[in-house]
Amino acid sequence: MASKSLSKSYMLVDKTEDLAGALWEVGSDPLIAVDCKGLRMGTGRSGELTAINVATANKVFIFDVLELGKSVFDDGLRKILEDKSKEKLMFDCRRNADNLFHQQKVKIAGILDLQLLEVMYRQSGRALKTEAASRRSTKTQEVQHLKGFLRCTQEYVKDKAMIESLLGSKKQVVDDNDSWKRRPLSKNMKNCCYLDTMTLFALYTKLNGGGRNHSRLLVASERYANTFRCLSERTYGDFEAHSLLPLDIIPEPGDSFEFSTGSTKCARCRRRFSDEEFPETQLSNEQQYCSVCTVADQSFMFVNNTTKCERALSKLRRHKLLAVDCKGFKLWHGRSGDLTIITIATPKKVYIFDVQQLGQRVFDSGLRDILEDKTKEKLMFDCRRDADNLLHQQKVQLAGILDLQLLDVMNRNSRASESDEEEESRRSARVDDVQLLNGILRCIEVYVKDEAMIESKKRCQIQIIGDSHAWKTRPLSENLKKYCCVDTAALFILYKKLKSSEENHSRLLVASERYADTFRCWPEKAYGVFQAHPYLPLDVIPGTSDSFEFPFASTKCQGCLRLFPAEEFPKSQLRHKHRYCRVCTKAKDYQSPKKQSK
């Protein structure tokens, strides 16, 4: 949208003399769009409201709350916002309603929440199934995921210029935390206000469906607004920050729009439901969680803003064992790849950090300290490229690694029958000692044997192969979020299956550190046959002695550029100075399945 036409489409109301005229224009329209801006507005009542945008179908009015103060509400805006006959388009009204009520004494009414309308739109497109008679608590599969504002705009409005403008304006806001407090408001901030409110009209037109859900939506939106503002105290925990639709918000089609009454409180969301919402075992223990909170507890947090980042880091600091995995564009190239996602999991919760959205500050705000803390052990699988990228792009020296690819090798070695007597021969002749590495999918198949996990991983791999930019596309798809969860959850299960003695634990820590160093310690990274092979590098896993020492090394391999004892190389190579260790010799002959099929 051109800035010239845009400048005629909004009005910044930051002076008392402009207030009456703006309120008259807003008050004369039966359908308006409302959106609140400020600092930490994602926390609702604890945020600082600095601007409220109210739009008619033709014009956006940006009321500068920071400049006008309470007078903007006392002089007429409160009356408009509380008027039930004046309908207000909003998107996820919960936090805005919470802030307006507890800070500004405004109980906003007449809401048409488009996040809920999108859920109703999806439901109307599905064939109704005969519902099996069962206890409510067993129907966790009926818990529905909510879609965000940007994703809904991309799916339903499909206006390329509008979407690009939304992305551009929001990126600047994310990059500047205090932008909504700075005065005068920048052109970009005004542009953001305009786009966010006018897009609501476009979404409503696409989703409204002739108004057949209008009455249900009014009832649902009122209940949605009350989910936070009716709480005497907010917790700001995972059970308020999840992306799941709360229960008993959208009424069933019919004349009454009634909900089943209940007196039993969920211990997490603190809403009341009938007893059948909870498993009988929970009722007997008086620790009952509704199906949404149960799913949220088992689920993940997608960390893409400062508020969520602080909350996630606070949770991670309490744990001594974590699982870590990096995703991105061409990340198999290590330092030359583009890291966009880093997933860190505890045994019960997965935190997916959107590095592409958060930028360097996610590491500066505490993630670097966690990743570099040797006392916090990190389960990983083939840590080499992730460690290389983190060091050279993010200045993170990953430490405390327990690499499960190596633990699989150690486990296989311990089960292999040992020869009665080791053959005395030069190291360079022992080519059969070179070991093949298993991939994570193979390890899941061998040790975990979870068919659902295996199928989920295979489906996501197909999606990534078909779309090389999948990890850079925003919003990140639900399938890829599940993929992040599967990869990290599998690490805990694998570790439980493979770990044995405390001695092996110490060996694995030493081996994993050397494994991480195989790529990240190079002054320059090469991407050839000597890096892409499926063989275990030599002298990474120490022997079983107490010292965990490796033989003295002073001769460099021309392939992997690592130092080894001279006897690692045939005498003929030592004379000609073209030296290749046993692994690199095998790597030169290695052919990928793709090459073999040609």
Radius of gyration: 29 Å
Strand order of the largest sheet: 1-4-3-2-5-6
**How many β-strand runs?**
16
Q: Identify low-pLDDT runs.
A: 1-7, 127-133, 592-598
Indicate the overall shape: elongated
**Do you know the CATH architecture of the largest domain?**
2-Layer Sandwich
Number of domain modules: 2
The first-to-last residue Cα distance is 51 Å
Q: Which secondary-structure class do the elements indicate? A: alpha/beta
Number of helices: 25
What report would you give on this structure?
The strands form four sheets. Strands 1-4-3-2-5-6 form a six-stranded mixed beta sheet, sandwiched between helices. Helix content is 45%, strand content 12%. The chain is an alpha/beta fold and 598 residues long. The protein folds into two domains: 1-126 and 135-254, Ribonuclease H-like superfamily/Ribonuclease H (Nucleotidyltransferase, domain 5), CATH 3.30.420; 312-415 and 426-545, Nucleotidyltransferase, domain 5.
List keywords for this structure.
Nucleotidyltransferase, domain 5, six-stranded mixed β-sheet, 16 strands, alpha/beta, disordered N terminus, 25 helices, disordered C terminus, 598 residues, elongated, single chain
Structure summarized in a few sentences:
With 598 residues, the chain is α/β, with parallel strands linked by helices.
